[in-house]
Records
---
Amino acid sequence: MKTVSLSFSSPLTLDEVQSIALDAAEVTLAPDARERIALGRAVLTDALEKGTRVYGLNTGLGHTRDVEISRDVLDQYQVDIVVSHAFGIGPSLPEPEVRAIMLARLAGAVRGYSGLSLPVAEFYSQMLNAGVVPNVPREGSIGASDLGTLAAIAATMIGRGTAFLNGTKLSSAQALQQAGLQPITLGLKEGLAVVSENSYSIGIGALALGEVARTLRLADVAAALTMEAARSSLTPFDPEVAVARSSRSQADVAANILSLLEGSYLTDPLQAISLQDPLSIRTVAQVHGAARAVFDNLAFTVETELNASDDNPMTSPDTGRALSTGNFHPMEIALGFESIRVALAHLALICERRVGVIGMEFWSSRASTDVASLPGGAILTPGLGGYAHAAISARIRTLANPVTLNIPSLDHGQEDHATAAPLAVDFTRELTAKLNDMLAGEIIIASALLSWRADVTLGAGTRPYFDVVVQAAKEGAADELGGELVARATPRLVEMTSRGVHLSRGADSAPDVHPSTGGADLGSFAPTPLYRSRKKALTDELHNAAAG
């Protein structure tokens, strides 16, 4: 089993979050992480000894921030913070999501700014490794620290509430006992620290990015198969086209499309192909490339937050101070997920348009083809997919609407702005799943048309997807409905596409390393400047790639 070591000096990656949350990789704390956590804890101990007022340590919370808490009730006060905030509503979050949230909270603690003691920080990794999954209601955060969400996890840590162990719901005390763990005792400020982080939008955001990455790859496959079905021109994907526009993301998609279509009949100059295709095909590199650019920015933002501290107050191991902050406001994450939904909605729009192109090609072919003479394995019932695609596209456009502007002022005006980041993440995941259905449907419809043509050679990257559809069709009855084929083939098509967060540089290869740092301090993603350089250097780089 894979083990991931959390370190202060080495960033945790988005793909590692997936391996821990989805594949149950084990978690350990590196020596420098332990040292950093201990240094942060010492700041709180020193503040209490000096009688320094620290928010949440010896004062109230929110609008009671200036109310002093007596020293003789400080320990109970931390328990009260957890219990009072554990008021989530709705169905339980799935196990992978809870694991991602727990990991994100622990990753933040590794920075040393939370003030957590080492035993409490280690307890997150112990629960993760033992398979104890707190029962966390879905609704509990407005995107200004995930208070209700993290309080449900903290409740399990102190033996309150309920949790799951091996899929069985138990009292938290029973789950911990059966896993060989004892409930923890919260000390100074720890009741606040265990509920004060944006672990939902960071942890589940990392899972969402894996899902979006898979969808972006699937979109390229769907477009490439449609091009083969519609006898499309490869000219818009020529490397020199991207050179003229100086767009790296466009160049990446164009290169990926050409890689998928390597060996395809479309590469034969003697084939009769379209001189100029509809924009839903001709601008795939531009539209898909723009979505990838938005994705890269968002991935950098989420990975940055994953390796940062959102604590308020923060306890600085470097200066020995406890500072009030607004770091718990994940505005960049919230706006990033707003943006990626719009980008994905555009992928849905051109997917729906491409299905229309296939439909016209299909019916014109069917009208002139004797069904009895079709080759073996031909798929006869692709169905009226355009109608379903239009319906899903309408739903996706609704999901793409902004959600981050809707949180009211709370806590007597003290908490008068919030980001709704968790809602933005949830809507992105829902939209992504719908878009997967559309793209898989496009692949199935394109494959149905291509199955009528025994004389065409498909690309090295598109052929495996075509083969999956044909195999799924052979497994069905001769008179089955097209929807049954779609239901059987869709999960296979999605699963055969990687959920690794890194998108391709041309094909699905290793990511580029940022030239200024070698990637040592930046995690997996190099920062993307707000202003994209149009300097000649980038043009020369793309031109050299085109020439190569």
---
Amino acid sequence: MNTILKEFNGVVARFGECVAIKEGKKTITYNELNEESNKIANYLKEKGLQKGEFVSIYLKRSMETVISILGIIKAGGVYVPLDPTHPVERNKYIINDTKSTNVITSESLLDNITDLVAGNTNVLLMENLKTLEKVDIEFTDDAIDDLAYVIYTSGTTGNPKGTLIRQRGVINLMEYMLKDWCITNEDIIMQFATYSFDASILDTFASLYSGATLYLIDDSERMSEEGFLSVIQREGISIIPAIPTVFFNRIVNYVNERKLNTFKNVKIVGVAGELLTGDLARKFKSSIGEEIRFFNLYGPTETTAIVTCYEVPNNLDESVFSVPIGNDLPGTKLYVVNEEGNICATDEVGELWIASEGISLGYLNNKEKTDSEFIKNPFDENIHGGMLYKSGDLVKRLADGNIEFVSRKDTQVKIRGHRIEIAEIETRMNEIAEVNDAVVVVEVIDGEKTLKGFFTADVELPFHHIVENLKETLPSYMIPTKLKQIEDIPFAPTGKADRKKLEQLEADQVVMHKSDIIVAPRNEVEADILEAWKAVLGLEDIGVTDDLFDIGGHSLKIIAILSKLKVTYSTLSIKDFFELKTIENLAEKVKADSKLAVQEFKKEFTQLTEFPKMHVNEVLPTVETVLVTGATGFLGSHIANKLVEEGKRVVLVVRGDNANQRVNDTVQYFFNKEVSSQIEVVNGNLTEKYLGLKEEEFNELALSIDAIIHSAADVRHFGDREHFEKINVQGTQNIFELVEVNPKIVFHHISTVGVVEDLLAEGKWSLLEGTTEMPDGLSVESVYTDTKMIAEKWVLDKVKEGKQVFVYRMGNLVGRYCDGKFQSNIDANAFYRMLKLMILGNKAPNVLWKVDFTPIDFASEVVVKSVLKTDNPQRVYHVSHPNPITFEKLIAELNELGFDITLVERDAYNSYILSEGVSEEVKNLAVAQLDGDGANDSNAVYDSTNTMKVLELANIPALDTEYIGKLINHAISVGFIKEAVMA
């Protein structure tokens, strides 16, 4: 192994006049880079720098940073990258911890230096570099086991910990990259990561080792899709070694939506930082290019940037949700270890222990932490220095030898690619004078991890007080985006904070940052929307270009804002706020909507029957054992209960460590009894291959069941498409793998009548009507409904492979016919919120609508009857009430129960329910009503007549006063509707 300097000197000798670094329009050749770094090295040696001493670099990402790195190594020093955007206290701690008597900075940052360093510190300004004499220096005493750098990661004591990395690790990594990635001096490599983040090692040293050009992307360009892509195209970037997975997601979607061809010169892309989903990887390959080599990278700072690397194939299996992180790289040996300290079997989850040429020498000035995380290798004492790093990451080794990341073992998490020790944040929160105790947990929203902080105090503390204190010591990505002050921290039986309980508690969004420049409204529409934002968010200094979710907005705030705007701007919807985010964009939509002609509602109904008409010619096998997903949900639990009543064995797939408890709680809530002995609970996750089980367990499960009822889905109206696809499409494909193992299984897929309703609303019903199979290319705007329709087609297409499959489009499921009982989250249900609004407001719009509401016990009976039927004649069923009543009839039934609800024309109704005279509760309910979840004119009738006929269902529940009274009485019993509102 050559040292870093020997390799660099060889590059200078071969490619001296080639461009080494480009930053904007500035360039520097390898000869010039050599000369400039020599000047720094000479300066440091003249200032008395001894071999192995630390030198801090306090610079923005720039050409000067790379010059400084080389100069420090040439002088025998160890470089310490600081980020000027991080808090003063954090950088000051690092300078003191490393005892850096030399700091390299620039004039623009000089004012900050006085707060960071002592008076006897040597400060080298890069602007003065040109005044230093040109020197030719030979440095021959460097060795591969010399320290190269120290990078600080989050620490459990409240202070970051410095990871000591030797040249050996850098050299080992570069030898792999240059050989396997085929990097040459003709490549142009993008430098993306900040230098305080170890991903910078990949791009910087790969360039310096190969003679390639390192392009330093501007900070503004690297944070915007358009800027990032323009750099790739303009500069002819050929290698992008490592970009954060979250940003990569944005790039892929941006390119895919616009059909861009900006990656034509790129030959390699690497991503790192978060779990890479199979959907995203497949989308990259299909939309950006199969010719590009695409790598999923993994590695802790403690083992020199990366230790595994998985090259994503062009034909990545559709069943893959979590893309593997790869196999052991050269110079690395990985072990998956269980709690007993033994090597795990294939597909068994354990902690990843790493032996590597790149293993750190430990943490600077932190022997206790070093000794706990760096141990002697109990498996192979003679390789890579005989030491191991215990990563704290839970993984499993797959049958093909690759490793799949599962989760963190402790409270260390990655947020946007940054490794964070939650204990450090908690320590800093506890240091705030008024805070008594603080706990931080992770919340996953639409697939992204965010931090949620809870604290106790003797006085009420405003959130901005917490945030401003944390900003003094923590970078922005370590500050919780949600906060809540509570009376006491809950504790688990172990005596530790009950984090699981806190994860379930809601907290409030905090304002992290606003635009530097406040853009005032330019027209009346922007001014009106701005006033609504200010009133609801309680903020003044916001402008029309601020992102709602950056300044404290969330779904409940959106409803409150809409309640103030709906009367004037009726076309605005909840969905618009999620998609458009700024006042400027919302105002543009309002102006565009005003130009569209309003289509008059045609007062005629369309019967949406069970197309495609797919007949079954075979006799189905008798069913004894049924697997049910979604069994802790409203429909799934009633289906499982009905199967038990029919004497069937039931297997429930439920995710989470507390799967059995969740099933028990569900059974107690709905049926007030213990879980039947006929029920078996399997702890599985639909988003994982083999449902997160071992392959042999998965195969055994497949051979033990006769039928599957797939009832699990994400049924929210708003969210990221990728998230819906993962749950509604990928989850369906994953559970169907059981049928691939055992083709005798009959697959029953639960869908929604929203599929046919949205097709009708968008003028596409004729594309499905009359068909005998699901047509290609059907789509609707709602991402939820669209993903359910994609899943339907995928399932029904399995008939062509000889599989027995059935689809059930469920209608609006409401309380049981026997007693009116509904699910616990009644306040989130659109139908019940509509009822409450009409009852509280004493008015309802005069609309033409056949109201779809189907008792849950009747719906589950329909599904189970079909599942157990051996002579099932058709594959698509509509599970909705066959005799829906008109909206006018529903109001009459409610008035029979003692309410006083008057039907009024739509315009008068809208004006009334959003007027100043009604309560805020009514206004908030009204927003969802006017957003499409309430009473509206509708042509759609979900025709289930044929479903009832072929399944021979004679006892159809009556939608009469008695039943509607049961629904209302349940709503009263749980406090959703107050008894006093009845006349």
---
Amino acid sequence: MASDGESKLLEQCNICIICSKDLSRDTAEQLAATISQHGGEATLVEPGDAVPEVTQFSHLVSHTIDFPAYDTACDALIPVVKPQWVNTSLAKRKLANPRQYSPDPRLFLNDVVVTCGDIPEGDKDAIIGGVVAKGGLYSPRISAMVTHLVDLTTDSDKARLVHARKLPIKVLLPHWFDDCLKLGRRIDERPYTLPDPEILRAGPDVPIRWQENKDLVGASSPEPSKLPSRAKSVHSEDQRSVFHEKCVMLSTDLGIGVHLRESIETVLKQGGATMTTDVNHADMLICRYREGFVYRTASRLNKEVGNLAWLYHLMTFNTYTSPLRRLLHYPISRAGIPGFQDLKISLSNYIGEARIYLENLIAASGAECTKTLKQENTHLITAHGNSEKCSAAREWGLQVVNHLWLEESYAKWRLQPASDPRYSHFPLRTNLGEVAGQTRLDRDVLEHIFFSSEDTVPPSPRRAMQSKDQNTAAMQPPAETKRRIENAAETTHGTPQANGKSRRPSEHKKLQTPARSRLMSEGKENDTPSSTSSRRSKETATARLHDIAPDIALYEKEMKRVGGVIYGGRRKSDEDRVRENHKKRRSVEAQDGSDGEHANEAKRQKKSRPPIAMHLLITGYQKWVGKGNEKKEDADKRHLRDLGIMVVQDARKCTHIAAPSILRTTKFVNALAYGPTIVHTDFITDCLKKDELMDPADFPLVDQASEKKFGFSLAKSTAKAKANKNKLLRGYRIHCVEDIRGGIDAFKSIIEANGGECLPFRGRLGLANQARREESDDEDSDMDDNQPGRNEVFLLSSAGPKHARLWPRFRQLALDIKKTPRIVRVDWLLDMAMSQEPHPPEEYELTEDMVEDVDE
């Protein structure tokens, strides 16, 4: 039993305990009993339930900030703490500082209690200050609460004590704290752990360890293509759905089919949700873009606004997370981040989900993501500084940054300076892909840019659907700017004014006839003021307004600078400088003479290009292969475009393909599925040499040796591809080992180009959900069960020992779902894709007796 002093420690506390997957109901009830025993009041909130009015509570206890009332609690200055806060307060017999127990991920060291060994005093002070600032605690001596000891060797007294007592304390170099604070993220401690830290012994060429990033599961793409398999299972009765008693609205801009929409609604209704088409009644809005009346209304009413990926994440894990927690769980913008449209970004050293996530984030930001690095690139985003791409990028003078630059630019919706040291910091033995996806969206930024109240919204094309009166009111300039515009209009054929006020009939008892001299100045002696002259004055003032608007905007911006405008203006290179419309001025000057008009007309004719006659996919063209030929390749592509040939990289868009011979490249094999016209690369050479569009029929690709080698006819394959219509592998579900030679992405593109489905095989229970998928797959509902591939499951593999270890697991999983397992070489897929006809898998099947003769 608690003593009298302890029993009243929480007497003034009214605590709300929010259950989650990390804080079960049983644990919450025990915690509530402890609070009541010490004089406090406790209220439990089930996952998915609404939190009562937060102002009635003194504290909120939660393992995470992912509950709808978190922002409200912060606004009301109600502390949100972890359950450890209660136990620590009782142990200390006084209420602990809630900041040290905050679940806010921005305080990424909040579970660190550090003590220092034999390190310099200056380093000690810096480390203590940094840890405390990021939510951690400092202890002057070794205690049960200490989690980290920072030291230079294991010979110090504290390090020996930790080793002798076998305490669960990590002994680290000071470099770990330095790297964490520079990045603003908590990274893995292992490379810094004494007595043998990896950062001091590993050479620069030793591969860096990589760990799977769990933060990106279900959050790497803003537009998932399929309903998650786990969402189709009904949750157990003892686990309440995250959609219980929620009202959900699916926006029309999602672009999904009727069948998928019905499937989503079915899952939501099974979870206890209701559907609505009225945003005012909705608790959750699922939309694709940050625009439109529905999006702005829901956001201003503080409703949960997320995209389809966020909805699928809730369905899969049945745990609430805020759509602002992950960047790609929130609707995207059509326009992209200002300043990103001209950027070409390449990635290096990011793999798996982290790479997919960054590729999609680059696309959502409005930039272009290139798979290869060229001198025309502007940025290289890398997970660490050791790679050929990094060396080349630095030689070419490109910006080399980590993913934090991209994430924070997206979160703040503004191009961040690449010169910030945080964006160019790369810890020695850490792959930063491990901490990708931890940046959150800022609601204040979103509100300011995308859904601010109408009285502060600047004129935007999105407001075009409003009424005329609303548009007119929205375009009115500020009072001071308006006064200067009116003064400018008065000096340029404006309506007469008195004392700076416009003349209105209601302000004058009597209308006066303008003076004769003023009428004569207009060149119309016998005319009197009329609605025509008034309208002409307004048009003149409007024109004058448009002319000086850039200068006014620049002046207003300069006035906001520290020190005003007296310290000099903006440079031309400044990214946010308002530029004057020189094109308009040149066009006005060109009207002064007919010579200028003829010059402009000639210039327009010179720039015009012929219509596109063909979309050409090129592979294996030797004149472009090799380092140093990038400029020649770009020049030749522009030349071909001037001849009516558009060079494309996507096999889906090509009408012709050029190759020196029959190749097994990804481009060639993918393009065969679409039945294009195939020509020899001599076609390109002759077109460039003769500067004219040659007839493709004069350059057919003839390669009898390769046809004999691969056992197919190129002409027949093209004809069969047109008949197949990309459905050769329809019904096939083909798995592929992740580290297969050539890369899983290459084989996935080939399979999908022929209508099949490709899935990575990691030795897990990824096959168990196929049976349920097939039951609801309308696309395959008309297929015969005896059709090839229908009752079989395929695994693309090599005959190496590493891959052979996965075979028994694959066979067992296939048999569990009553499928025939087929483990085949990649030649099976390539031969089918190139011949455009099915091949029996038995000829390509791998068995254990083949492994011994193959070296990996």
---
Amino acid sequence: MATVDDVRRQFRNPPPEGRPMMRWWWFGPSIERDEIDRELDAMAAAGLGGAEVAFVYPMGPVTAPFGSAEFLDLVGHAARKARALGLRFDVTLGSGWSYGGPHIGPALAARQLHWDRREIGATAYDVPIVAAWPGDEFVAAYVGDGSAGAPSSYVEVPVSDGTIHVPAGGQPREVLIATSRVTGQNVKRAAVGAEGLTLDHYSAAAAAEHIQCVAEPLVKAATPELLGSVFCDSLEVYGGDWTPGMFEEFMQCRGYDLRPRLYELLVDTDGSRQLRIDFGRTLSELYEDNFLKVFRGWAAGHGVPFRIQSYGEPPATMSSYRFADMFEGEGWGWTRLPETRWASSAAQLYGRSVVSAEVWTWVHSPSFRATPLDLQGEAHEHFLSGVNQLIGHGWPYSPSDGPGLGWIFYAAGALDDRNPWWPTATALFGSLHRLSWLLQQGTPVRPVKIYIPASDAYAAANHAEPLNLYRVVRRLIPDSVPRPIREAGLDFDLIDDDALAVVDPADVPLVVVPEGTTTPPETRRWLDAVVAAGGTVVTDVSTLADHLPAAPIAPPEDVGVVHRRLDDGDFYFIANTGAAPRTLTLDEPMERWSALSDEVTVTRTLTLHPYESAVLLPTAEPETPQPVYQPVGSVVSDWLVAFGDDIRRVSLPHRWEDDPELATYSGSATYSTEFELPDTTDRVFLDFGPGRPVAPDSEPYVPANSYRALITPPVGVAADIWLNDTHCGSLWAPPYRVDLTDAARRGVNRLRVVVHNTAANALSADQHLLDAAAAVTARHGRRFDLQHIEHAADFLHSGLLNRPEIVLRSGARGDEGRRSE
């Protein structure tokens, strides 16, 4: 825990913990020491906290095949360089995702239960067992009386000498033959030398093989003492619902024999629902015992934390996270239930003060379209979902001397120093660092619990839809459950059956149980204890709003609140997630801190501009007078713009894409002018005006999970402001206003506005990238498609898109707000 004084003292310059990190894609692997050093230097200079290395498909000639001595030597070099720079260095324990590779044969590969279903007549049949695919293993056969799809019960058919012996019957019948089949799924986006089958996540032997062949060499190469964590990416083992020895495992876990009733996974019977619940639960436990515990135990032997995104397939429960050291989510949406909430709830329930998220996964597709405002807006969404450590997705390794823009990941943002807006990156990442660190202090206040209907999710799984527990739960808990909680200014944790063992029912004021939910006896007893202790259990979601307690802050539309408790007080992180300004009226005076400004004010009324955030702390201090901005007038003098040595006279607004010569230009341009100021004691600001909201469907090709800020800024897309050769600040987000006071002087003032756009303009004309993708596909097969690259030039707005105004704010610096310590 921390005190209010602790966080006030350190907020402006927090310790390194909480700095955003980047997933660092190594393509090929095609890597060199000098470029490793250069990119790590660039990360450190931008204020990033470290890199999580991920090894993926080639983008050029392979220089160090995955697993080779050369490759491992470069991993070690990168780890040592990162440590020398004070950066955290994490390693993904494999190439691409999910874990697997050439060391995984059919005996250790992910498997799926395959059913052959056919109608037969009344005569006896002897059916030879034939492996239709390599690795096929016969499981069992069943016969039932009646035509196809009609039998309600089946009996197991005897098998001997490699033959299924179907006895004669008195009517048409149906035969079901179950086969354990390798799913055939290969590692996605694999590096050269890492191709192969995905491993069986229910098999301790498969985990041990991957550790021996891949994980152990990687960790030894990096040196355990230099690692921040070892990492497992998304669980995307599609269709993996079987493992050798399943009958024995099921008997041990559930206490009855699965074999005679296996067909109930396919056929609906009076008892099939409970059997499917038991089967799904067994899969979850096998994943925990034979994957999570194995990797965490091995990592602990090296003294390295094991970090994982534990959701998807296999059917990880929310509480499965407890068998890892560090919990990570993915996905934005503060009023919904993204994977991020799966992880942050587990972190709160199981005592992890830091929870990370893979952030910017699909940000403003395609690559290089993302702006600093996009990054800030999506980061706020993750903070509102309980995250306090950002792992950016990501930083593509790319040779500095390559043609065109170089290499990019097939999807997600290319968030490195090739972006023209990179001069503002230090300020952006610095602000996100302050918020991440702050949100690691104290404990979250989440008075509402939402029960995860895991039994119903297990029961809903069938052969046609393999079990992704998180995804099914998303359907069973509609957005109408979390949304009113968040819009009321409150927060919640998800809670499942396993978590009840660590949650005192007397500490839970409100539990929401979705309508029609099946609850095990132990859970019903826990819910009864909540009520007995004075809490409320809501099962009718339509009445949820009537049961919600009053929130300390009642936010307007689009504004989310995170409430955290310190040793001697509380603080609130609030963020406007929409494209319109929102005003809050508070019940008591509060200090207002900004991650972007060092000014502290006391207020009971505040306006949040689009995608703006603030930190609030209750205080007994008097309110700061509300600032009044008085426009002096537009900077109407002649403007010059310089693109390198090309200097032009322009009038504003000036959009580069309107000029055919600049349509594919990515870089910076310097706008300059002069203006006169009277002698004044007022504070002087340069105001570029508000951004222009755009419709959510203005870029129809962008998928729903691709975050973008719905605003066209007056500065496209970021700017550095200089007055009289003094740097006054960087702009990328509303309010597009910068304080000129320290640099302003009576009389003539020289103004420079250095505007930076994105690299998307250049991307739209980069034939080298398309050629590189085609060349590696021809040589190594189709391992990726460049996402939406044909839309790189759509809806771009670069330049100085509005005429700025000089505005005065009454009162000298220091009279209206104090500086933070």
